[in-house]
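Sat 14:20. Reprocessing the chain from the morning session after the first attempt stalled halfway. Input below, unchanged.
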Amino acid sequence: MAINANATQQFVPIEDVVNGVVKLKDGSLRAIIIASSLNFALKSEDERQAIIMQFQDFLNSLDFSVQIYVQSRRLDIQPYLTLLEAQYKQQINDLLKIQIREYIDFVKSFTEATNIMTKSFFIVVPYTPALIGSGDGIFGLLNRKAKQTPEAEAANAFEEHRAQLEQRVSVVEQGLVRSGVRVARLGTDEVIELYYKIFNPGETEKPIPLT
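Finished this time. Tokens:
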């Protein structure tokens, strides 16, 4: 039975991704931050307590909800193997070529026998615009006449909402940095990749179509 791709996309709540900002079909926006991990095993007891207290203060300071998403992926070793293959072809010393080839074979066999996983940590920051009525009577009529074109109005509204979202992102980034966590904002391509992997869990090892 053939699956209609357009029908399947109706269940995806994403309308568009603009400059790293996710526009959902309900009008709300999302920004995504990737965060580093902390190794508590290498911290002293005082450092652990300080980190926990700082993170607690960060959570208590938020007046909006955030989503913490942890993604596990199998480590993609292919770029490293490609680099080794290039070094092997360029090498003129026979002994070094043998050693490189043996190392390539070892890495291949090791990664095939062992599932090496990497974990990525994401913070999803939401913003839902408030719904305001257009108004009735003469004042509502005058306001409607003074309105811009629908395209310009939509663009202006998006920029206003994006500015509010950016303020929330800044608050989250500053709070995480104070806790000792490194953060980076995802751009459009990174956001598309992340959501593609989420909605296509069986294709995590395949290239991602961006068009």
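The helical segments are 5-9, 45-61, 78-90, 94-113, 137-146, 150-178, 188-199.
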